[in-house]
Design a protein that fits this description.
The complex is a heterodimer.
Chain A lengths: L7 H21 L3 H26 L3 H31 L13
Helix pairs in contact in A: 1-2, 2-3
Chain B lengths: L8 H16 L5 H23 L14 E12 L2 E9 L1 H24 L6 H20 L3 H19 L6 H32 L4 H10 L7 H16 L8 H4 L5 H10 L4 H8 L1 H4 L3 H23 L4 H21 L3 H28 L17 H15 L5 H14 L2 H30 L15 H16 L5 H12 L11 H26 L3 H8 L1 H8 L4 H49 L6 H25 L1 H7 L1 H7 L1
Antiparallel strand pairs in B: 1-2
Classes of the chains: A mainly alpha, B mainly alpha.
Chain lengths: 104, 652
Amino acid sequence: MYAQNVPLSWYLLLSAALFCLGIVGFLIKRNLITVFMSIELMLNAVNLSFVAFAHQWHMVKGQIFVFFVMMVAAAEAAVGLAIIIAVFRARSTLAVDRIDLMKL
Amino acid sequence: MNAPLHLWLIPLLPFAGFLLNGILGGRLPRPLVTAIGLLAPLGAFAVALNPARSLVGLGSGLPPLPYAETLPHPWISAGSLHVDFSIVLDQLSLVMLLVVTGVGFLIHLYSAGYMHGDAGYARYFSYLNLFLFFMTTLVLAGNILLMFVGWEGVGLASYLLIGFWYQKTSAADAGKKAFIVNRIGDFGFLIGIFLLLGNFGTLTFSEIAGKLAAQPAWTGGILTAICLCLLVGATGKSAQLPLYVWLPDAMEGPTPVSALIHAATMVTAGVYMIARLHFLFDRSPYALSIVAIVGAATAFFAATMGLMQNDIKRVLAYSTISQLGYMFLACGVAAYSAAIFHLMTHAFFKALLFLAAGSVIHAMGGEQDMRKMGGLRTKLPVTFWTMTAAVFAIGGFFPFAGFFSKDAILYAAFLQGANGKILWFVGLVTALITAIYMFRLWYMTFFGEMRSHDAHPHESPASMLIPLVILGALSVCGGWIGIERIGDYLAPATGALREQPAGSHLELWLSILAVLIAAEGWLIADKYYRRKPQRPAQLAASVPGLYNLIANKYYVDEIYSALFVRPLLAFSKYVLGWIVDIGILGGAAWLLGGTATFAGAILQRWQSGNLRSYAAWLALGAAAVLIFALILAGHAPGHAALLFTHFDGARN
C-alpha cells in the first residue's frame, strides 16, 4: 500500500500546519465567514491526525471519532451560517471588530 | 396552715403594666393607659399591705418572717455555685416595699395629671412601671445576684426616664452621665459580689449571715475589702461623695420621676443594701467608719451646694444628696434602723417637696428658676400648705416626721465615742444649713412679690393635689411611730439599736438643741430672703472667693472633666478613634476592598466583547496548558504520563 511508505510524522506535521493556519486565520481575519472557515480548517486538521493515528495503530476508534467530528461540524455549519445571516441582517456588516456585544 | 403571700405578684404586676403600655400603649385610648399604669402599682401595694398587717398587730394567720418564696427551678447551677430565683420578705424588706409601692402609687397618680398633655404618655407610664418592677425585685431579692439584677434594672429605668425628653440635648446628656457614673459604682458592687462568692461560696443573704455567725472571731481583712467594694456601689447608686455628680443633672427628667426615682426610692437603694448586709459591715469597723465619714462629708458638702442654687429642683437634688448622707452616717454608726426610719420619712417629705415643686413649675408654665417666682402663697394654697409641711419636716421641727428620724441618727452618732461627736457636730451644722436653704426656697417661691410678669399661676388639678395632701399628712405624722418602735420591729432584720444609758436625759437635750439649730436656720433665711432681700448679694460681694467656690459647686464637675472626662475623650478620639478605628481597622478594610476593586478594574478589561481577543486568550491558554504539560513531562515523567494515559492504552 502506498500509505505504508509515508511515515506518521509527515501526517502529523501536515495536521499541525493546517491547525496553525486555522488559528492564525481565526485570529487575524476580519470577515466572519473567513473566521468560520478557519474553524472548519482546525477541525479537519484534527481529523487528519485522528485518521493517521488510526491507520498507524490499526484501530477503528479514531475513524469513528472523525465521523463524530464531521457530524458536529456539519451541524455547526448549519447553525453558524444561520447566525451569520441573522447578524448580517441586524448589523449590515460581517466585520468581527464591530460585533463586540459579547460582554455584560 | 398559713395562706401563701403571693409575693411574686409584687414585681410581676408592674412588669405586666410595662409590657402592656410599652407594646400596646400607643394604640390604646389614654384613660386605659392611665388605668393600666395606676393599677399595677396599686395592686403591688395591696399585695404588700397583706403582710403589713403585722405592723399594727393584726398579724394573725400570717406566716412568720422572714418568709421566702423560691421558684422550683434554679436560676444558675454550675459546679458549687447555686443561685435561685428567691424572694424573701422580712421586716426590712416589708418596710421598704411599703415605701416603694405606696409612694410609688401616689407619684403614678400625680403623674397622670402632670404628664397629661405629653405625647409620650404611654411610654412614660411603661417606664415608670418598669422602674417599679426592678425596684421591687431589688427589695425582695433573697440573694445578692438577684438584687444586682434589680440594681442594674433601676439604673436602666432611671436612664430612660432622665432622658425621657430625649429631643433635649441636656436631658439626653444627663441620662448618659447618670448611667456612666453609676457604672463606676456598679463595677465596685460587682467586684464585691465576686469576693463574696469567692470567700463564702454562696450569694444567698441568709447563708452568708449563717457562715459569719459560725465564725464569731472573723473580722476585718477580706471582709473590709468586700464592704468597701460594696460601698463603692452604694455611693454610685445613692449619689454619695465622690460619685454624686449625676443626681443634680438627673433633674432634667420629668418632675414626678425626680420625686420617685431620684429622691424617694431608687437613690435609697445603697442605704437599703448596706442595711441588708449589716451583718457583713458589722464585722468591719474600718469599713463602717468609712461609710460614716462618706455620709457626713456628703451631707455637709451637698447642703452647702444647695445654698446657692436658683433652680428649684436642683436645690431639692442637693438636699436629697445631703439627706442620703445622713442615712449613710446612720449606717456608719451601725444604727441601721435609724437609717431605714429616715429613709421612710425622707421618702414622704422629699417626694412631697418634689411633687409640690412640680406643682409650682406646672403653675409657672415650666419655669424652674426661683428668682422668677415669688408670692405664690395665695395663688397655690394647697401646694403652699403641703410644701410648708415638707419644709418643716426636712428642717427637723417637732412634731414633723423629719424631726424624729434625723434626731435618731444624730443621737446614734453622738453615742459613738469621740469620733461620733465629730460626726454628730457635722450633722448638726448640716441641719442648720438644711434649714437655711429650705426656708430660702420657701421664701423665694411663696413669699414676697411675683418677679415674673408673663406668668399666670393656677392651682394644679385634683389628681396632682390628692397625692400632695396624702404625702403632706404623712410628712406630719410619719415620724410619730418613733424610733423605739421601728427599731424594735426592725431588730430581727437589722440588729438592735444601741441602748441609751438608763435614766439619762441626753437624748432630750440633744433634740432640743437640734430644734433650736433648725429654728436658727429659719431665722437666718427669714432675715436674708424676706426682710432684707438685698443682703445675700452684699454678703456674696464681701467674700467673693468663697461665694464663687460654692456657687460653682466646688468646681467638682470641672475637676472631674479635666481629670477623667477630657483625657478619656482625647484617648478615645485620638488613640482609639484615629489610630485604632480609622487607622488599623478601617485601614485593613480599606486595603482589602481596595485590592479587590483594583484587581477587578484590571480584570474587567479582559472581557472586551471582542471575539478575536477571546480567541487569542483561548489559544494562549491552550498553549500554556500544553507547555505546562510538556515541562511536567520533563520533570516528573510519571505525572505527565497521566495526561497521556488514554493514548498509552490505545497503543496496545
